[in-house]
Amino acid sequence: MILALHTGMHRGELQALKWQDVDFSAGTLRIRRDKAGDGRWVVLNSAALGALQTVKREQKIMSPYVFCSPQGKFLHNIDRVWRPALLAAQIPDFRFHALRHTFASRLAMAGVDLYTVERAGGVEDADHGPAVRAPQPGPHPGRCRTPDHFRERNRHQNRH
Predict the structure, then answer these.
(1) Label partner for 127 (CA 20 to 30 A): which of 36, 62, 87, 139?
(2) Quick count: other Cβ atoms within 10 Å of Cβ 121?
(3) Cβ distance 85 to 97 under 8 Å?
(4) Domain ranges, residue 69
(5) CA–CA dist 4, 2 (Å, integer)
(6) Is residue 147 in a domain?
(7) CATH assignment of the domain containing 84
């Protein structure tokens, strides 16, 4: 879960991840096939790198997969791990995909531009407009508004 939170990887990308695609010395990993079908490289921060090192150290079976079944095969049912983790953390009704949104939100809140946020999360189809929405100042149609925009609009409407 730490890897998903710090990379924005899709569930299927995590399930398909193999050790041969992890470069510990460069701090990167290769997603061979993403949703767009092309694959991409992911830069790992210290938390993601540490999580992978822990998995490698504690994995009890030799498997080509980073996250594998007890028999070392492809992990078809990630919920077998996900649900108990949610229960242990006392987090009700949280979807795995929300980790991607948290990843993107944290980058945006750190001041990373939306183009970079989209690329870091593997969003490749720019023709459909930005997949990540963040508050933008000013009355631009189709953009999210800041809280200050709504306060100003309400103050203006209350005067009339």
Answers:
(1) 139
(2) 22
(3) no
(4) 2-129
(5) 5
(6) no
(7) 1.10.443.10
**In this structure, what are the phi and psi dihedrals at residue 114, rounded to the nearest 5 degrees?**
-65, -35
- Triad 58, 89, 103: Cα angle to 5°: 80
pTM score over 0.85:
no
Q: pLDDT tens digits, residue range 107-157?
A: 888 888 888 777 777 776 545 444 545 544 444 343 444 445 445 555 555
Number of domains the chain contains: 1
Give the burial class of 15: count Cβ atoms within 10 A of its Cβ; 0-12 exposed, 13-18 middle, 19 or more buried: middle
- Whole-angstrom Cα distance, residue 117 to residue 123? 9
Pairwise CA distance, residues 11 & 98, whole Å: 11
Dmax (CA) of the chain: 72
